[in-house]
Amino acid sequence: MEGTFSFFLESAFLGLFLFGEKQLGKWGHWCAAFLVFLGSWLSGFFIIVTDAWMQHPVAYTRLPNGMFSVTSFWGLLTNPWALIQYAHNMCGALATGAFVMAAVGAFYLLDHKHDEYGRIFLRVGVVAGVIASMAQGFPTGDLHGKYLAKHQPPTIAAMEGLFKTETGAPMVILGQPDAEHQHIDNPIVVNKVLSFLVYGTTTAEVQGLNAFPKDNWPTNIPLLYFAYHIMVGLGTVMIAVMAAATFLLWRRMLYGARWTLWIILLCFPLPYIANTAGWMTAEVGRQPWLVYGLLRTSQGYSSNVNASNSLFTLLGYMGLYLMLGILFIFIMQREVFRGPEQTSRHSSQTEMRITTG
Question: What is the model's pTM?
Fold first, then answer.
């Protein structure tokens, strides 16, 4: 469904959006842009629904041969985990686009080029960025954390580095988890905050990893802990930067505040890193389960594919994506430095050559 209803919709209208502005007219071009948005968000929904079933399986039955069968397609689509995860994920996607747009606008204003476009890019990026960044933390991130604590308590304990069950559990801001000795080295903590965030009261008991069998602990606690803290830390920085920029925009001081423009420009990689760390948190946290509570990762590998084939495929994909990433950076750098006016003129000349050809 993701391929049929989303990917082809998105890819087809992306071509019309990029190359059909003059031929489609204003409203036709807007519709092409809207359908690209619709296709990409549908694609994200179907991907999230699939991943959410692995995190929190619903609407299924187990067959006599050990396989699983979906009993309700509607139940699959309305999985509460999927709806919360989708909202959280798409807020991250919106924040990423907003930071990039704001950074391009800040670059133009700092470089004293394309000032009119720079003001538009900065204004739209900052407004969208502050909304998306705050929504990613609350309510979507908050709801996701509460749902995670309810259905995957060993995961939330490992994310927070909580090895022992505590009443009025603290939240660790910084520190290094020592899984072998089950404690946090050099911790900086805020007392009772974890209990409040998870259960809404500072006196609640939060289960530590010692409350669960060791074979149900996440398999790589340090990686999970650091990925989670990077996600939360960068998310907090993103909210602070966009909130400060919004205040300056409201006071009509943003366009001339060069220090703020430099900060916005340099912060554009943060949502990419935070989103990657968030996905690492979700997938590393699910371990050692392939489908949480039903199928372990050790039971889910194919006996017909050996490790060397998997490694070769992984390296191939990594090399391909590295090449695409370098090409993407080169193309985007060229377009940003060229500027919107030159880009528009270049596109018109290209369309004339195609038409006359």
Answer: 0.87
